## 1
Amino acid sequence: MVKKILFVCLGNICRSPAAEAIFKQKIKDRDLENLFVVDSAGTGGWHVGNLADRRMREAALSRGIELTSRSRKIDDNDLYEFDHILVMDKDNLNAVKSLIKDNTYPINSKIKLILSYSKKSQLDEVPDPYYGGQNGFERVLDLLDEAIDELIDSLID
Ligand code: 4NP
């Protein structure tokens, strides 16, 4: 059965498009592409239709990862459509949970902080790099790289 994975951040131009591209690269490298559908979205709509932030695209490309997605805003259909919704921080978690209208359907358990999969990181949130310097983007990529290895391992168990 194909598993549908959605990564979510605030703007869908920095963290979640990076997570989407890293996940896609890793399942390609591990020959697992036919097991997954992968997408990303933002809880805010300011950047809808835009490519990822240039700083994130450049940082990722220097690691061999190309970000091609366009920003979109999450909507409540996504809560039903996707099997796993991985958010970057607690604000995202609250924003996604606030979209739940139907409490009879077990959506809550699908929504998790991505760093809950990380064995190494002391952090539980991926810091928002938007207003910071270039090292913030590198840090995001390092955090996601490790957590996504663990995430994929857990999904193929
Ligand atoms: P992201 O970063 O949530 O990782 O895509 C941000 C992008 C844009 C803004 C904030 C965070 N913004 O305020 O426009």
Note: The helical segments are 15-29, 54-61, 76-81, 90-97, 134-155.
## 2
Amino acid sequence: MKIGIDKMAFASTDQYIELTELAEKRGVDPNKYTIGIGQDRQAVVPPTQDIVTLGAQAAQKLLTPENVRGLSTIIVATESGIDNSKASAIYVKHLLGLDDYVRTIELKEACYSGTAAIQFARGLVALNPQESVLVIAADIARYGLNTSGEVTQGAGAVAMLISANPHVLAIEATSVSYSRDVMDFWRPLYATEALVDGKYSTNVYIDFFKNTLTRYQQRTGRQLADFAGIVFHLPFTKMGKKALEAVLQDRTDDVANRLREQLTASQVYCRQVGNLYTGSLYLGLMSLLQNGQIKPGDRLGLFSYGSGAEGEFYSGIVQSDFAKNLSDVDHDLAERHQVSVPEYERLFNSQLGMQAADIQFDTQADNAPFVLAGQKNHQRIYQRR
Ligand code: CAA
């Protein structure tokens, strides 16, 4: 039985900054950001948006009266949880008006947990093939103003329906997971911004990619030539290039050049939005499917990485109706508007964060279908428009 991704949808905020403008304000050569890091724009998050509102917005785009009937479970995978106890999936389910007879849970392991959610969902569907699982990978990547990680921030959610007989990607049986206790990126309970050893994290990422790919190749006997493309977790687009070149080295044959071309196609949306943490690999998959030379029957490799650290390499076969089962990311990105760097800084400092006080946000300027209206008696107040 084929099990995998049946539908995919993306949501982010409706505003962004140009990274050339950020570079100018930070006194950095813009080429460092656009070429050295490989990012052009970055999503800006108003205080009225968080992982619940972004996740609900993405999920709403793929749910239909037919497919909600088979839904058994909602898994929200996130690094940016909004409560130390209660699962954000419960808020998402409520905002979407879904049946109460649905399991709701949250998963965490930095940028990796979206992949864990998909693998767990595969198991659930294998046990009950008539049921489906909604996986939402949603995050707000925050490093802080004027930090070296600032240029690698971003925000958004990718929602995926995992089912039998999927329309986008049938996941293959072999996957290789690899984990080690590593302090490359973490966020203590009292912190709203990540702590990171940036250079070290890029080295660990490459190390984990090589380890999982090698073991995958040993187990399956497959070579790089067997992949139409490899999709990477993209904290910034240059990271995918670093990892791919670490295995291609100085190869210039057709296979190597094809993988390089498809990598470029997978980076298109990340360049415009930034790091989605758990969702980045899957926005990369949407980007490759919408911008690359991919056809039904192609095998894609997927490399997932979450600091701390956990990596996984797995593969899937592209299905015939894939193009009709992806939300229109180009349209959403074209609808966004630019804000200035001072406005981004003001919004960055206006987040609810760790505040305990009652607060009411002005939601007038936010046109999203779901908003965070504030906090009262330590409870977040969400609104559906
Ligand atoms: N023109 C062109 N390129 C330039 C340039 C210029 N004027 N100036 C610098 N560059 C290049 C540098 O040569 C460098 O390229 P290489 O990496 O290919 O050598 C690149 O721009 C970046 O320059 P620096 O290394 O000097 O940049 P930095 O010290 O400011 O830090 C960073 C970069 C480490 C990525 C930092 O942004 C960071 O810490 N980001 C967050 C951590 C992160 O994303 N890690 C990724 C792996 S961990 C992960 O994947 C999980 C996750 O999502 C967090």
Note: Residues 3-168+327-384 form a domain with the Peroxisomal Thiolase; Chain A, domain 1 fold (CATH 3.40.47.10).
## 3
Amino acid sequence: MTCKIVLLLSGLVLAASARNSAAVPPPAPYGPVPSPRQLQWQEMEFVGFAHFTVDTFTGKEWGYGDESENVFKPTAFDASQIVGAARQAGMKELILTCKHHDGFCLWPSRFTDHSVKHSSWRDGKGDVVKEISQACRKQGLRFGIYLSPWDRNSAVYGTPAYVAYYRNQLTELLTGYGPISEIWLDGANGGDGYYGGTRETRSIDRHTYYDWPTTIELIRQRQPMACIFSDAGPDIRWVGNEDGIAGDPCWDTLNRRDFYPGDADGGRLNRGDRPGTDWVPAECDVSIRPGWFYHPNEDGRVKTPAQLLDLYFKSVGRGATLLLNIPPDQRGQIHDPDIASLQEFARRRDAIFAVDLARQARVSASNVRGHERRYSAENVIDGKRDTYWATDDGVIDASLVLEFPQPVTFNVARIREYLPLGQRVEGFAVEGWQEGQWKEFASGASIGNCRLARGADVTTSRVRVRISQAAVSPALSEIGLFYERKE
Ligand code: FUL
Ligand code: CA
């Protein structure tokens, strides 16, 4: 008898400890998920572009390729001023046009004479790539490169020799300038150019000519953490326009095999494919000025702080990354009106996100995965992206309620999904308890890295975030509520 009781008890103890150690495993990832390099890239959210070359001095947007090297003559080039402007604006990375379509190289490439080495600027001893990459490292920004596949200067453009030349140049950039965080493979190709003096139109087959898989392999070997951007990824996709605006919804997934660099369906790139076969988040490129290069006659047309803030909400706020171009002027510095606009934009943006009202709340969830602490509702207000709230498998219709000791007033909401488990949510709403009922503040389909909703002021002591549709059980890493003062 006693023996039986002991056995029974030890059985119970065993069962209980088994339950503890076999804690409920995390939800299975849904669909494609980000690679570590993509995750690192997506966390940056706001990055910069610096378009700078002979065009800065000729007034063109696409140099023909026949420009003398001496055309490139900045009077007071200052890499730390350029990078400083990017840093003060809150950019986490700066991508430099090391070579634009005109073929002029901002570094002394061993493979061509058409570079800073043959310009009278600094007696041919200058290296813009070196100075910008060093300034980035010094100021804590990552450094990215743009190396135009189309080259209107090269005599061999259109032949296999050019592809070898392109790879040689890429190798120089990937091996001589420290860590590269992003490589921009532009798809543009207008056909005509100088091409070593032949001045003709050359067409290439965008699908086969560059043999991108081999070049991508080369990049992976040299810089495994570099994200590759193009119309087709593989790591980052073009958003389908040059206005800085992501689709709504904007999915992180894409059926990549349908796309090639230079062959893009803008509408699909803008929104992504759902469901999609590959994780290829969108990057929204846009210039602070009408053109990509600095032109004095556009000094009065620099985007205003309000316009930049609006773009931020329509790019970063839709789960994409904002890539804002700030072109150095003929001195080789960011121009005053651009600096002023960037600084005011940063001030307004930072003022919005300085105080997260959600941190004062008590959060509860309609369902918590396995009733376990590591999936609890509090995880959405701890300020950490790597902790998240999750529900039991199959529980899709779920909500979180934030209760405040005192009523709060907010007009901006931010939601983040836990990306390592894929993009799971397909419909959500943010609601405030007002006059005895839930009133919708904002709703949408995709969340992803960051969803920002901006609306009218809501004063309430209860806010609900409701998942209305999801492919599988949701996993949210953060919820924030903010107040934007009208300026
Ligand atoms: C385009 C180029 O043709 C523009 O000149 C600019 O560099 C932009 C970012 O990409 O495809
Ligand atoms: Ca968290």
Note: The pocket of beta-L-fucopyranose (ligand 1) is lined by residues 61, 186, 188, 285, 292 (CB under 6 Å).
